[in-house]
């Protein structure tokens, strides 16, 4: 099965991050897991490495509700820089929100591949990697 070199979690919930990292590690399908506690830190990382595609993630799991910069604002800014990135990054919204409005809004954004309601199961994780 295909493996992912770099997966990034953008989420401020330490328990979710801990459990998701354990789930990802249990699949043995991801070489490197990066974590950012807010959208601004993740965006700054992407901008800093815009000319170095090997350091950029293949997948981003993005929370919507975070301090400093939430997932919605991250997506607005990401859309502006994405044409300059030397790599296609697949973005999944990972949220505890079950609001149909949030799901509809997220799926209407072209760079968002899917909306995953937390928690991420091992099966869902394997499925997302298979679909890359």
Automatic annotation (TrEMBL):
Signal peptide: none annotated. GO terms for biological process: phosphorelay signal transduction system. Gene3D superfamilies: 3.40.50.2300. The modification 4-aspartylphosphate is found at residue 63. SUPFAM superfamilies: CheY-like. Keywords: Phosphoprotein. The keyword Phosphoprotein applies. Pfam families: Response_reg. Residues 6-132 form the Response regulatory domain. This is Response regulator receiver domain-containing protein. It comes from Flavobacterium glaciei.
């Amino acid at each position: 099965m295909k493996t992912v070199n770099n997966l990034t979690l953008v989420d401020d919930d330490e328990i979710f991050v801990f459990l998701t990292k354990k789930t990802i590690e249990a699949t043995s399908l991801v070489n490197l897991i990066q974590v950012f506690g807010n959208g601004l830190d993740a965006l700054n990382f992407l901008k800093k490495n815009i000319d170095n595609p090997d350091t950029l993630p293949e997948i981003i799991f993005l929370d919507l509700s975070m301090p400093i910069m939430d997932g919605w604002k991250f997506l607005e800014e990401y859309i502006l820089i994405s044409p300059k990135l030397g790599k296609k990054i697949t973005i999944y919204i990972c949220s505890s929100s079950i609001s149909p409005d949030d799901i509809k809004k997220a799926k209407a954004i072209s760079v968002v591949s899917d909306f995953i309601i937390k928690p991420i199961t091992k099966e869902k994780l394997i499925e997302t990697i298979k679909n890359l």
